[in-house]
């Protein structure tokens, strides 16, 4: 595990964009395509915007990139809270990514059906190859949740399913999320976060006693892959 701390958000976002470029080029060279799991929430927006900029957009063969989601809010795909909509507006539309390269968590189905349909889609994508995403971008909630692995939820104990749906009382919403066993299979996982508001959660997850029920991001421990944390100084203030 490595922790990268940046003076400002610009250099943090540039470094995370460089990571996406490097992983994309390596994966495409190695197996002809790149599977990228996007994070929800607000923090990834600037990364997406930088990747579509003139400085970066020509560094990746976008026709060989396949996009997945770490989690989704159970809202229509055109709803302002939709993680898909955010990625569509900040990444897919600017890069003109065809729909067949984007694996959406389908919220027109029931939460359970959507979760199992997504698990099937992931398994079909990997076929006989191991279900190991090339790069997973994760965020961190102020309560130390990541994806939709929220404190005190039963999904934290999940060992079999790759994708689960759950109701989150705190946000009064159903969510669909990749599970920790699937996330931890990945070749590369990167947390991307910034702002002083994240500092207590960062401290608890990285320096606190192990308590997965309370700090779900502690669950993220890749089996054979690489784990990196990208944060700014305000978010890292309690671990420096
Ligand atoms: O759908 C979501 O909300 C996310 O996947 C969630 O895990 C997010 O990454 C954190 O809540 C951080 O969100 P911010 O980046 O907005 O602080």
TrEMBL record:
* Coiled-coil annotated spans: none
Q: What Pfam families would the database entry show?
A: Glucosamine_iso (PF01182)
Q: Enumerate the PANTHER family for this protein.
A: 6-PHOSPHOGLUCONOLACTONASE
What are the EC numbers? 3.1.1.31
Q: Does the keyword Transmembrane helix apply?
A: no
- The gene name on file is pgl
The answer, when asked if NAD is one of the entry's keywords, is no
Q: Which GO terms describe its biological process?
A: carbohydrate metabolic process; pentose-phosphate shunt
Task: Write out the function statement from the record.
Answer: Hydrolysis of 6-phosphogluconolactone to 6-phosphogluconate.
Q: In which pathway does it act?
A: Carbohydrate degradation; pentose phosphate pathway; D-ribulose 5-phosphate from D-glucose 6-phosphate (oxidative stage): step 2/3
User: Cross-referenced NCBIfam families, in alphabetical order?
Assistant: pgl (TIGR01198)
What protein name is recorded for this chain?
6-phosphogluconolactonase
Q: Which family does it belong to?
A: Belongs to the glucosamine/galactosamine-6-phosphate isomerase family. 6-phosphogluconolactonase subfamily.
The species this protein was found in: Pseudochryseolinea flava
